[in-house]
Design brief:
heterodimer, A: 390 residues, 4-stranded mixed beta sheet, elongated, B: 377 residues, abc type-2 transporter like fold
Amino acid sequence: MNQSIRVVKACFLKELRVWQRNPRKLMLVILLPLMFFMGFSLLMGGVYYGTGVDTALIVEEQNPGLYTNGLIEILQESDPIPPRLNPIPMDAETADALFQSGDILLVITIPDGFEEALLTNGTTSIHIQVANIHEDLTKNLRMPVIRKIDIFYQTYLLNDSLVDFEVETLRPFSPPRLGYMAWTIAIYSIMFSAIFAGGSAMTQEFEQKTMDELTLSNQPPQYIYIGKILSGVVISFIAPPILFALSYLMFGIWPLGDLLTFLLLSSLLSMFCSGIGIIAGAILRNSVFVVPVAALGGIFYWIVGGGIAPLELVGSSFGAFNEYLPVANVYRSLIRMFIDGSYSWLTVDAAVIGIFALTFVIISPLAAHRASQVNYGQKIQSLRNRRQRN
Amino acid sequence: MLREIVAIVKKDLKQAKRDPRFLGPSLIIPLVFLLVYTIMWNSVGGGESFACGLVVIDTSPEANDMANIIENMVSTTNHTWFNVERYDIATANELYQGGSLIAYIVIPTGFGDNITSEQNATVVMYINNANDDIVKNYVHRLEAAVLLFNQGAVYPEFNQSSAPISIEESYSNTTTPSNLSYMAAVTILLSLITCALASQAMQTATEFETGAIHDTLNSPTPRAALVLGRTIAAIPRSLSSSLILIPFISLGMNVFPIGNLIILLGIMILSILALVPIGEIIGLKIRKREQSLLAGVLLSIIGFIAGGGMAPISLSPAAIRAVVGIIPITHSLSLWARVFFLDTTLGLVTSSLFLFCTWLVMSAVAVHLMKKEVERS
């Protein structure tokens, strides 16, 4: 076997053995994306699941009839569009106390004279109190009420509801948002694990003071670093199958597309990220900084790459900016493949990430080798000392 | 015992001064979160303006009224609900099918005629239903526009007074904190949370790696004094990270607290008290600096996201809130967000008590783990 391949293989196997000896560290790499997904499920799941938003319903109308009862019925009806309301009838005093203490966020009051006004073609109003503690939350509280009133118009006030609307969706099935996020977090996990594994493979050499042994081992350093990059690629593929399985178990959905395309794009992404990881590890030399860099670099690109919601939501300017980022390219193609099973941008996106991955596999070992020979922390310290002396 | 506590506090503070790297994660994490959020929400027009195409085929005044409502109706933070771009039907459809346009609304021919002849007129929305959240957001917005039209509340006044049923709204706060303001406010606390948790975990693990922990644990100092001293030392250490961020965030993002500053400081101290012993436990159990840090960062980020750091969790069902309520970060965030944006002392007792009890329980666990460590060594 060629000597260079032997070095790459030896270093690759050594790094995998290090991971095998550190099951706790490996567990953390798997757990971070999983807990990230669980965190988002807990944060956002409430809007989609459960009995609905507890809403204080105050009925001041003394003579409820067709309209009042109809409105109450509509408010209580289950709605396919979340968030659902869960109206709890109560008196005004209790509702106010609960609203002031923050235990209830929405109060709907049907005033006295509501029935009479509608019977006599007069005008009336319903009063809603909203805890506007956050822009998005306020929207999610107000919009279901607006929707219910619109349904009331379309059902009971036909003469006053001449306009209605129809919705045509692009595909027959809308994937659940959390299922969508499980798929995109799988891409995040590849990115995070690759940066972390690459970075960690470098920082451990500095922290265990074995860097000099590596440098003086008489083996070409670039092949040692390529071995480290490849180990990062392997580690990065541990969490995604678990995330896909979770999304299937929780929501009964499986991403569309084929495994080969997924492996092609994600392994190129992983190579690119692992390359970044070893450069970061060589510069930072300290796991204290590599962990947040990997976790947050991954989150950053997860969000701007369309992990929370498709980028089309934000309009063309942001999309154009993103088109030049290799990570966003992978997100775009994989998201399209997962949802539609289509490959419209695959060639362009695979080419972009391919160029970056190849470049980083070549450049990273050289850059990491250079960076490992310069102690930036010490340089900064000596600069500080010199300034103090002056 | 007091003298010993003071000595431990002094030692820990000296150590923090010598090696300020503990600030790294507690500054990097909140700033990156804030950066990501700023990019994301600024690009979507403040969080509520969703990109949408509009095709107005009908030329009647009614169609014009409907188009004006769609283009100009605003959220509570005065952002238009839709970020509308007008297209002809062929272009809109081409962009939509190609994936460049996520949704578009068509006001068809005969829309105005139908209304003047008192027949039903229908607006059609085409949505790329990549997930159900997109469908929810677009349907809600269009529904609001349709209701406004039916109420006769047209642009520019949006006056509902002649509608059979109008909606009168009142709010708990005078202004609605935007998604960005909320994020900026809780970022200050995120820095403190990360510093309290991750830096304590890292410090304890570092003492394991250097072997210093055994000297400390085997000294005649009571273990309760050790835990207490380390917790007290973590208060200025954790506050320092927030103090670095506060001017940057307040001035840079124009976000200032509305509630009482002393209560906010109290919430910070309570949060530190509850989280530092957890960091201590992480360090005592994991013993390796890198892994302790990773675990500390992981717990901070996940606790922050699940506990309502990116948006309040108030809409979640009680069962989910109960699960998330086990994490002290959830209580810290709920107290912080409430007092930051509202000058109130109501609704603070339960979470404050929870944080206080967490401090006591977790300190007891840390003392127990230290005892076991001494026995083992």
